[in-house]
């Protein structure tokens, strides 16, 4: 009768705990919008340059060697690889949490109680065996095994493990995105270095041209055809151009060292062939479809995985409102003397305990964790949408840049041809006194600036081809 009443009371208590704790506060839910335009420029061609490996995309053997070295030695990339290892360890940790914990236990102790205490008086009158008094002091020896297991009824632990797996996959995509950016940064710096080499060569050529012009002006001054002012103007122009030479040399040193840093090595010369830079033809880029960005861009896949992990975190936080069921058990041997330690059944002990625990009062910490996980989920949704939008905008910008730079380069090439021809014309006119020295100086300066700007435009062309490859998600595969 009493047992029945006790069981009924325990059942009612468990039900009340269950109903009171299973209520979780409502939070705002949002589904990510992954819709993108159907095309970039009206084309439905699904051929995508992002599927081309970087070894095929970049033809320069020196650039390939630089990228190979960077992928092996770049410190930041190696740091990211360790983050992947950390994420992998977290997966193993979370996986172990929903499996039973089993441990071994051994212990030894000694206890002396006062004779004039209730325990001491009782022990003094107790015989362990006929003719043997209760030992004093009393030893305590134990050896056994213990096990505990939280039964994952609400999948709290399994969802935590899935979230850890998802973040591990996210860290891999983060590494892929870094590889994409690293390759693009090296290629961009390499083409910048080639452009600086060509600009330096142009400046040196102009120094020779201007030096020859200065000698002609000096001869004409000696012939009283021009005055000292013309000589000083030409001399100043030569000095100005020579100063540009050292500025370019400094930029070359800094660009080389930037590449060396990306390669994870100390400053040293970068092997390259700068001749023929003006004749480089940018690779033909196939944009494919915008929807392919979701599969090709590592940062988009990383944002998607982060969103999946955030959703699992919400489920884990919600499961904390529910009762948790735990089972613990133990088995072993315990005695006051080692010679009795393994005697059965006298020294044998075992236990099995099951318990249900549920939050009932003061659930503020659980609510705070739940609201925080929900807010992070919304944050992950917005980050995912923003990453997709940013990827699309990057591709469109680089597409427009490639087109505009191609037109700009054609016009600047014609400008350079015209100004190069005008140098000879101005020199002939100056020698025949049909043009003054200022016209010669301005023509030479304009021609130099036009040639330098032409090289800069070519460098921007190559840079845009590199960046559109990165924007499409190429390089990491």
TrEMBL record:
Subcellular location: Cell membrane
InterPro entries hit by this protein: MdtP/NodT-like (IPR010131), OMP_efflux (IPR003423)
A GO term for molecular function: efflux transmembrane transporter activity
Matches recorded under Pfam families: OEP (PF02321)
Segment forming the signal sequence: 1-25
Record membrane topology: Lipid-anchor
GO cellular component term, pick one: plasma membrane
Main location: membrane
Key words of the record: Lipoprotein, Membrane, Palmitate, Signal, Transmembrane, Transmembrane beta strand
Family of the protein in this entry: Belongs to the outer membrane factor (OMF) (TC 1.B.17) family.
PANTHER family associated with the record: OUTER MEMBRANE CATION EFFLUX PROTEIN, OUTER MEMBRANE PROTEIN-RELATED
Name of the protein described by the UniProt record: Outer membrane efflux protein
Organism: Zobellia galactanivorans (strain DSM 12802 / CCUG 47099 / CIP 106680 / NCIMB 13871 / Dsij)
């Amino acid at each position: 009768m009493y047992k029945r009443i006790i069981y009924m009371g325990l059942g009612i208590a468990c039900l009340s705990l269950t109903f009171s704790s299973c209520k979780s506060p409502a939070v705002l839910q949002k589904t990510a919008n992954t819709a993108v335009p159907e095309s970039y420029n009206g084309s439905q061609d699904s051929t995508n340059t992002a599927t081309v490996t970087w070894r095929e995309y970049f033809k320069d053997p020196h650039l390939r060697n630089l990228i190979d070295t960077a992928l092996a030695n770049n410190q930041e990339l190696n740091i990211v690889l360790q983050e992947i290892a950390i994420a992998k360890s977290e997966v193993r940790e979370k996986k172990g949490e929903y499996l039973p914990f089993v441990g071994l236990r051994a212990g030894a102790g000694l206890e002396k109680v006062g004779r004039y205490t209730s325990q001491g008086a009782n022990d003094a009158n107790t015989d362990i065996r006929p003719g043997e008094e209760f030992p004093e002091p009393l030893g305590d020896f134990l050896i056994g095994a213990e096990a505990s297991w939280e039964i994952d009824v609400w999948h709290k632990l399994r969802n935590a493990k899935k979230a850890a797996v998802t973040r591990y996959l996210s860290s891999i995509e983060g590494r892929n995105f870094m590889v994409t950016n690293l390759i693009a940064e090296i290629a961009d710096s390499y083409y910048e270095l080639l452009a600086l080499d060509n600009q330096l060569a142009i400046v040196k050529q102009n120094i020779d041209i201007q030096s020859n012009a200065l000698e002609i002006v000096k001869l004409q001054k000696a012939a009283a055809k021009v005055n000292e002012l013309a000589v000083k103007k030409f001399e100043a122009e030569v000095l100005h151009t020579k100063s540009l030479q050292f500025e370019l040399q400094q930029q070359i040193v800094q660009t080389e060292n930037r590449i060396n840093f990306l390669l994870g090595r100390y400053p040293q010369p970068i092997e390259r062939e700068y001749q023929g830079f003006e004749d480089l033809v940018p690779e033909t880029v196939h944009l494919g479809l915008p929807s392919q960005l979701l599969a090709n861009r590592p940062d988009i896949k990383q944002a998607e995985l982060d969103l999946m992990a955030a959703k699992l975190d919400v489920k884990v936080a919600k499961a904390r409102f529910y009762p948790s069921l735990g089972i613990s058990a133990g088995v072993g041997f315990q005695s006051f003397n080692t010679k009795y330690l393994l005697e059965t059944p006298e020294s044998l002990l075992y236990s099995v305990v099951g318990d249900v625990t549920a939050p009932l009062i003061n659930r503020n910490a659980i609510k705070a964790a739940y609201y925080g996980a929900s807010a992070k989920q919304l944050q992950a949704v917005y980050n995912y949408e923003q990453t997709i939008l940013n990827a699309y905008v990057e591709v469109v910008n680089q597409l427009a840049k490639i087109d505009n730079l191609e037109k700009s380069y054609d016009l600047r090439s014609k400008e350079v041809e015209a100004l190069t021809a005008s140098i000879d014309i101005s020199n002939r006119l100056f020698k025949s006194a049909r043009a003054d020295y200022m016209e010669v100086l301005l023509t030479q300066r304009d021609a130099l600036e036009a040639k330098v700007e032409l090289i800069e435009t070519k460098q921007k062309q190559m840079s845009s081809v590199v960046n559109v490859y990165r924007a499409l998600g190429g390089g990491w595969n």
